[in-house]
Amino acid sequence: MTGGRHTRHMRSRKGFTLAETLITIVIMSLAMMLVSSGAVVAHKAMIKAQLKADSQTLLATSVTALNAELVRAAEIKTSASELTVYSEKRGIYMRFYNDNGSFDADGDNAGILVSTSDTADGTVADGVYTYSLVTQETSSSGLYAQIGDISLGGGDGACISYTITVYDEGGDEMEQQQVSVYSAVETADANGDTEKGGD
């Protein structure tokens, strides 16, 4: 009788069997995998969106900085991949060109560089000062800008056209913008031909 009572007592206990516990663990594991993979996808999408926003900021900052010098320039000389601008206010020539292949201490490409000098040919009495067109804070996420397709045309004012392209650290193009700036200054192309804008 004691044996029967003990058996009834064991059957009346409430709890989970081994099979129910294993099924629960499998279901919870699958749910956790779905949640974690969704978090990874969301994180990648956030990084991609941030990179896109950073590249648009770098593009806009580069265009604004370059246009500010072109509009106020007293003289502009162009070639296919660089601009030389004379700033009467500063009394210096500024040469804008691409940083091709050189990297700073952090491994970042400096993008568009500016060299200042006393003369149009780049020789100086006081030395040449070279710096990046935009700060490294603006050029974040390994992004860098390059200038190209520089040309000038006529009309009521001298029209300087150029393209700014933003690349990621792998060299893939992120953003690009063609820009035309009108200036009432004398301009010269690579052949030394000058063009005077409207008065």
What secondary-structure arrangement, pairings included, does this model have?
Blueprint lengths: L1 H11 L5 H55 L2 E4 L3 E6 L4 E7 L13 E6 L11 E4 L11 E10 L4 E10 L5 E11 L2 E3 L5 E3 L3
Parallel strand pairs: 1-9
Antiparallel strand pairs: 1-2, 2-3, 3-4, 4-5, 6-7, 7-8, 9-10
In short:
The protein is of the alpha+beta class and 199 residues long.
Verbal overview:
This protein is of the alpha+beta class and about 200 residues long. It has one domain. The chain has two helices and ten strands; from the N terminus they run H-H-E-E-E-E-E-E-E-E-E-E. The chain has helices at about 1-10, 20-70, and strands at about 75-80, 80-85, 90-100, 110-115, 130, 145-155, 160-165, 175-185, 185-190, 195. Strands 5-4-3-2-1-9-10 form a seven-stranded mixed sheet, with helices on one face. A hairpin with a 5-residue loop joins strand 9 and strand 10 (about 195). The longest helix has about 55 residues, at about 20-70. It is rod-shaped. The model is unreliable at about 195-199 (pLDDT under 50).
